[in-house]
Amino acid sequence: MRAAIVEAPGRMRLDMVPLPQPGHGEVRIRLEGCGVCASNLTPWAGPEWMQFPTPPGDLGHEGWGIVDALGEGVGALALGQRVAALSFRGYAEYDLAAADRVLPLPAALDAMPFPGEPLGCAMNIFARSGIEAGQDVAIIGIGFLGAILTRLVTEAGARVIAIARRPYALDLARRMGAAETIAMDDHAAIIARVAALTSGKFCPRVIEAVGKSWPLDLAGELTGERGRLIIAGYHQDGPRQVNMWLWNWRGIDVINAHERDLAIRTEGMRAALDAVMSGRIDLAALCTHRFPLERLGEALDATRDRPDGFLKAWVAP
């Protein structure tokens, strides 16, 4: 099969490698696509801890496709079944997944991209956020996760204040139901605007969905007394220094909302499928840019640079 290998910072190649064989309790999936995650950008840039070349298909963890082979002991899945999965070498033509980490997809979604892992991540972040009707909820960063969370939080009856850098992202937030939008360009002006919108109380819930230092600092400033700061952004490019005095003084609860338990992540995917099938999540508005596998490098660069109209890239073998 063909598989992508990141051979150096900002450089990838396609190699022919042996077809993986499913072990006990595993299935092999002939991939139709794999979403490109922003968490790939730090390895793509080549930090000191990164080792090159990567294993074939490595970094790709948002795949979906057709069950192509069954390992021993697999009884609940069938050959030819279309699925999404928690797997970890999805930048390839085939990948393996544990059968209990595979989500069958209904025929109604045929031909539609379904990056189950990040969709499930959004559902689990929402579940950890403790959103209540009538709350003011600031969401900082309207990318793939932030857009979905804007929709979910709005449907829960809360008022979303969406904060983003790009005009496209602010427009998208409004389409997803945000009541207020603020350009993420001036730290003090954003704080003043949110203070005005909340009568000086700030927000009982703030979701940081960027993964950078400044948005995290801003999130603390926007969280009200006894509020909850939910960290949805993936912080992997170094330590963070926070205003602990402010967090102490306001009595803020800080929730790191990324799940590591594979069973919980699988349940998140199931919840996401229900949300898509019920119309709560519109996949067509979220998966905006398709690249062939051999152009994975361009897909990663687009994920980093975010051209106008870009929200989520995926690669297809």
Automatic annotation (TrEMBL):
The keyword Oxidoreductase applies. Belongs to the zinc-containing alcohol dehydrogenase family. This is Zinc-binding dehydrogenase. Its cofactor is Zn(2+). CDD domains: Zn_ADH9 (cd08269). GO terms for molecular function: oxidoreductase activity; zinc ion binding. Residues 24-95 form the Alcohol dehydrogenase-like N-terminal domain. InterPro entries: ADH-like_C, ADH-like_N, ADH_Zn_CS, GroES-like_sf, NAD(P)-bd_dom_sf, Zn_alcohol_dh. Keywords: Metal-binding, Oxidoreductase, Zinc. Residues 146-243 form the Alcohol dehydrogenase-like C-terminal domain. The keyword Nucleus does not apply. PANTHER family: L-THREONINE 3-DEHYDROGENASE (PTHR43401).
